[in-house]
Amino acid sequence: MEITVAVVPVAGLGTRLLPATKSQPKEMLPVGRKPVVQYVVEELTRVGMKRLLFITGPGKASIENHFDSNSELVQNLRETGKEDLLEELEYERAPVQYFYTRQRRLLGLGHAISCAGPFVGNQPFVAALGDSIIGMHAQSDIVKRMTACFIEKKAAAVIAFEEVPRSDVHKYGIAKPKSDGAVFEIEDLIEKPSESEAPSTLAIAARYVLSPAVFDAINRTKPGKGGEIQITDALRLMIRESGNVYGIRLQPEERRYDIGNFKAYFRAFVEFALADKKQGPGLKQYIKTLVQ
Ligand code: UTP
Description:
The chain is α/β, with parallel strands linked by helices and 292 residues long.
């Protein structure tokens, strides 16, 4: 079995980043040189995903434009002697097919993933949040490790996890693992628990491998935290009913950059800009003069 379909939900309103996201998708905000969603797509294509389905919504057309090839722009670069910039558009030629469907009502991430049902059919698939980069250079092969684990364990789902400070558990879905180690079976999942409720500090980190059974679980999941149909609650149902849901820890170099709020977005931008081969060293000097 090969898993080559990935679903990328990008329909959310990004209200925590207003006004930056009033008329542009948060997934198109740049981190360093590229929009966030380009890192996500590069990560997925590098690990062999062949068909990408974006779950979009109103105001998200620029994501579709970004992944189209733009022959006028290419011609303009050629005619104006800027051939060297053509390599910046290399990503347009990734060996992948793009598909788009709309989440017509913003009922939460679980609901967004359920919109992929008719496309995915009866196959396992990857879900990767369009607002989260894994690893500074997006070189992570976490999705590959997750699909391998899914196949080996005949799992119902495999979820990526990252350790977070206990003071941050209220922002994430948190696991109750059955064991220690890089790969573990999950006994329970709790969406955005309080510090005292949290059974661990292992937070869901934006990547999932899901069996098609998830669609039925989502359909039976009632709105939870924030009045939204949460994927965490649907996965919890699967754990209770069939079990066989596993977690994989991200390695330290695979840190997750979730750009959903300004604190995280500013930090990610600065970190990526400082790591930029051309601009990083000069920027470092500049920041030093600013903070002195
Ligand atoms: P978030 O919950 O962080 O996104 O979802 P949001 O709703 O846009 O954020 P705020 O709270 O208003 O600031 C994580 C990912 O899931 C997608 C988002 O686009 C984002 O990439 N998502 C979320 C959907 O596609 N549909 C939804 O109903 C919710």
